[in-house]
# Entry
Amino acid sequence: MALYSNFCATLARYAPRQMRFLLAFSGGLDSTALLLLFAQFKRQHPHIQLRAVHIHHGLSPQADAWAEHCQSVCKQLSVPLILERVHVNSQNIEAHARVARYATFRRLCLPNEYLVTAHHAQDQSETFLLALKRGSGLQGLSAMPVLKLCDEMVHFRPLLTQTRDSLLAFVQAHNVAWVEDESNTDTRFDRNFLRHTVLPPLRQRWRQIDRMIAQSAELCAQQHTLLCELLQPHFTPHFNPDDGSFATAPLSTLSPALQQALLRHWLAYFLPTPPSQKQLAAVLESVVGAKCDACPQVSIGEMVVRRFQGRLYLTPHFAPTRHWQGWLQDRQSLTLPDGLGQLMLIQGTLRWNDRTFSLPVVTDRVQVRFDYSGKVRLRPNTCNTDIKKLWQKWAIPPWQRTRTPLIFIDDKLIAALGVFNVQI
# Structure
């Protein structure tokens, strides 16, 4: 069939030497077609390694039956199946389910293995219109690429140019059943609203609308690639790849359009989706344009743009640690708050995750805090110094000052791990 020929051509173009594939298999029509195509391809190319993964969201009463169906189909096709259960927040189910799925995919994907999903031409149209609804720029309107590197995982969409009708005909020709997710008809979800309400009349009036949308998305992707190339001379000299920071000084000499383009380019290194125009404007006004002595920040989804000493940083939202404290005995470990890891004391040496710090005194018991605003005497023959000045001296950003473990003996500060020790 033409679908299989096109599928093989796509593999030859985008993954000619790829040997390992992890297929996202929901049991629906699209992923069933993908599984059948790969199973047929493997029969002709037995050297490739093929696995499938089914994500059990537990959102539908039929979820267990779907999992059993997927196990049955994979068994018939001799494709190993991984069954993974995830928990989805009841609020904003659509977004949380996607985040949970892809977190699982990243965890399961082996080195040199491609994640493969069954997105097709109609999915591309929906993605383009969703980006248009969000007011996205070139990057967002580029929609979905066939091949993309995301968090060290390669995401491959070999069916992106194929229509759903061609997938339907292929699966029916193989006489393989598929499952229907009842949530796919719920037009409260944006993608379903586009699928069932917006796009059908557009396709009725303009039969080539999906192809035209795909063409526009491809043009946006080409123009975004060109823009990134043109931005490099303005971007590279001011970007620090070690900490991901970007200098704010050059922005003041540039046009507003170029400022926004550089900010988008910087954020694209870290964010899975492009920021909105409103978010970019907030960063320029409230962070870049803040007073020199200010510590401004603006939230963008689950991340925060911050500024320190003329540079922009992107960090997670940090939980408060100021009121946290704990005691650590010799040869014991202590779990620090907000994912800061483990601390262990062994005969005057502290191990913090994979780093080791020697304390100025051997002790069998220390107190750990994250809050101190007093003075410090680093050496016996020196004056007391306000700890704030020490943070400034060693250029520790304000958000890291309350995430640096402070070590106390008898209520006296003796060390800030990784920053300074007090000589006793």
Summary: DSSP finds 13 helices and 22 strands in the chain. The chain has a mean pLDDT of 91. The longest strand covers residues 49-56. The two ends are 80 Å apart (CA to CA).
